[in-house]
Structure prediction request, 198 residues.
Amino acid sequence: MDANHSISFFDNQFQKQVREQSFALNPFEEVALPYLTGSVLDLGCGLGNLVVEAARRGASVVAVDASPTAIARIQQVAAEEKLALRGVQADLKNYQIDGQFDSIVAIGLLMFFDRARALALLEEIQQHVKPGGRAVINVLIEGTTFLGMFQLGHYYLFGRDELEQCFAGWHVLALNYQAFSAPENTEKVFATLIAEKI
Ligand SMILES: C[S@@+](CC[C@H](N)C(=O)[O-])C[C@H]1O[C@@H](n2cnc3c(N)ncnc32)[C@H](O)[C@@H]1O
Prediction:
């Protein structure tokens, strides 16, 4: 297993979910799904529940994650169902987006980098969405006190309005904030933004 605590954390969780055949979409993925048409890139795709469903509905998808368990599962489903879905195992800390997409998704990813990398990757995402296409971004924001999944010194909690500010000049289709209780009396606070490139 790699030295990145966050990647190990999720890979262990995904192994358990594969054993239990637990592949339900999370609430953020449910909201994102209708926006994923045409060519789709999902960064930090996890087990691929969202991309598998988008591909089943006709999207052409590239799905990237560092978890070997997640990418193996995505490749297996893509082959079994003959989907236009390509799983790529890569560390997104050093990754360059190749091509232009109708939709780019990063749900629960950007907070796993330091501020400079999180903002640079967000800017790269924006540059690789086609005009008229969409970005679907979900991050943890300030107020989050559940930190167990982070590698020390390698995470970034966005300011409450920071995501919205980053998308100035885009047409914001949806923006919401949600808080969830986490273990040991902690809390996760999320911002989710869906925006169309003008
Ligand atoms: C909170 S999960 C979100 C997964 C999925 N998007 C979802 O909504 O269920 C975070 C994902 O980011 C991935 N991840 C974290 N750090 C990463 C890195 N440096 N490179 C690639 N993937 C990473 C994890 O493997 C995990 O799949």
Notes: Helices lie at 5-20, 27-32, 49-56, 68-81, 115-127, 162-166. The chain has one domain: 3-196. The chain is about 30% helix and 30% strand.
